[in-house]
Specification:
Blueprint: H1 13-24, H2 29-36, H3 47-61, H4 68-77, H5 86-94, H6 102-131, H7 136-156, H8 163-178, H9 191-197, E1 205-210, H10 216-228, E2 239-243, H11 248-260, H12 264-269, H13 276-287, E3 291-294, H14 301-314, E4 321-325, H15 343-361, E5 365-370, H16 393-397, E6 400-405, E7 419-427, E8 433-440, E9 445-448
Parallel strand pairs: 1-5, 1-6, 2-3, 2-4, 4-5
Antiparallel strand pairs: 6-7, 7-8, 8-9
Helix pairs in contact: 1-3, 1-6, 2-6, 3-4, 6-7, 7-14, 10-11, 11-13
Length: 457
């Protein structure tokens, strides 16, 4: 790796020395503790500074008075006293310049450390690409994930917040919603469902599950379509639809059928000539919507994150919600330990990754999921949470779990029953319920029925 690094890396040895001298000075107290816990051992360049920082943090965590003698003892127990030149070296280090606000030095040290990590990450990418260690797609995936984690590092390390700060932030968002400046959530155009959920909330993972052939994708695309439409003077939400099963053309045709109320088979066969003007108007409406479609068959959660970041940097519209069709088809990263484990563990890791993605980006993530075969042998066939396929982690990670329930496929002499139920079986922030739907298969479309919503227990 050294051959690929520049001769000089971003660092400030004097700032490290002054920081340690300040935090170890008599009476440093709370300001020193706050600054120390804002840093990590690897943020320091000099080995002696790392050793003293580790000893300092140990003493603060144990609530032991910090002075040269207690530091000497902590270093001695860690077999690190020789790294600072013994006790005389420690005393000399602590005699450095003392500043009034150690947090200023902590910010400087952290900034230099982050720049060093970027340099190392770039050097690693150059070396791996030059030596062809991995396929380029894997290298891009790994680098994007590392950059994302580096960018999110400070946001994740918030620590304890005073209730006043939390209240101020919450009330500011509440006022924005009351004044119409902030949408309460991503609403999907189903009135009773939107009333129940108040829209899909930022940071939430929503799972929509059903048996194969029931119409998961149709309902998901209905949600995407209506969420992206301008409504009540508000611009539509910018959405990204990841289809791991259908091509982008198939996805578009389904959207077009629903938007134009044209039979899917007529669109696919070219027999919709009598409605061509209406179809073209619907096409013009669709292309004005803030929608993005990806039909990459083998895709990982880090790759999805990378695409969201890239889209946000290339336009003035950030992605506001993500929908993935479907969970069991997502791939594990090449370097994932779950790739060599059983399917339940693999799906559990992916599910957790999706929840973290929703939280890190502050957007709702909707993922479709298959159900296991047990539901087919149950009287009535109504799904329940234990039917989620492959992993109980899906239920655990999800903020909301909804099922589509329709009658089993009829025999050859029976007409299909268009009635369906949208069962909200888990709702972390609200009630559960059963919402009656009507499925129009020719348009790949669901509608809410007039009947009242019933409770789900």
């Amino acid at each position: 790796m050294a051959d690929w690094l520049p001769e000089r890396l971003p660092e400030d040895i004097d700032a490290e020395r002054a920081f340690l001298a300040t935090c170890c000075a008599p009476g440093a107290g709370f300001a020193a503790s706050e600054a120390v816990f804002a840093l990590a051992e690897e943020d320091f360049v000099h080995p002696a500074h790392r050793a003293v920082f580790r000893a300092l943090r140990t003493l603060i965590e144990a609530q032991v008075e910090v002075n040269s003698l207690t530091l000497k003892d902590a270093l001695d127990q860690d077999d690190s006293l020789n790294k600072v030149g013994g006790y005389p070296g420690l005393v000399e280090l602590l005699a450095g310049e003392d500043v009034e606000r150690p947090q200023v030095l902590a910010d400087l040290i952290r900034r230099k450390a982050k720049l060093r990590r970027l340099v190392h990450l770039g050097a690693q990418l150059v070396r791996q690409a030059a030596e062809e260690d991995e396929p380029p797609e894997v290298l891009v995936d790994q680098t994007a994930q590392s950059l994302f984690h580096l960018a999110q590092g400070d946001a994740k390390a918030k620590g304890l917040l005073p209730i006043q700060t939390v209240a101020d932030d919450a009330m500011e968002r509440l006022h924005e919603r009351l004044e119409g400046r902030l949408s309460p959530g991503v609403r999907v155009g189903f009135s009773r469902f939107d009333e129940l959920t108040q829209g899909f909330q930022p940071g939430n993972l929503i799972v929509l599950a059903a048996r194969p052939g029931i119409g998961k994708t149709a309902l998901a695309l209905n949600w995407v379509l209506r969420a992206a439409q301008e409504r009540d003077g508000r611009p539509g939400h910018c959405g990204a639809f990841f289809s791991l099963e259908m091509s982008h053309e198939e996805v578009f045709l389904r959207l077009l059928a629903a938007q134009s109320q044209t039979n899917m088979k007529d669109l696919q066969s070219g027999r919709a000539t009598g409605r061509l003007d209406h179809v073209m108007r619907s096409r013009d409406e669709l292309v004005q919507m803030p929608l993005f479609i990806c039909d990459q068959a083998s895709i990982t959660v880090p790759q999805i994150q990378n695409m969201i970041v890239k889209q946000g940097s290339q336009s003035n519209r950030r992605v506001e919600f993500v929908l993935i069709d479907y969970l069991q088809l997502l791939s594990s990263p090449e370097n994932s330990r779950g790739a060599k484990q059983n399917e339940a563990v693999r799906i559990g890791e992916i599910s957790r990754g999706l929840k973290l993605m929703a939280k890190d980006f502050g957007i709702p993530v909707v993922v479709l999921s298959q159900l296991n075969r047990e539901v087919e042998h149950r009287t009535g066939g109504r799904p329940q949470l234990s039917d989620l396929r492959d992993s109980g982690a899906i239920e655990q990670d999800a903020d909301m779990v909804a099922f589509i329930h329709r009658k089993m496929i009829p025999s050859a002499n029976e007409e299909p029953d268009p009635s369906a139920e949208l069962i909200v079986a888990k709702h972390r922030n609200g009630p559960t319920a059963i919402i009656q739907l009507h499925f129009q298969g020719e348009y790949a479309m669901y509608r809410e029925m007039v009947r009242e919503t019933s409770s789900y227990a």
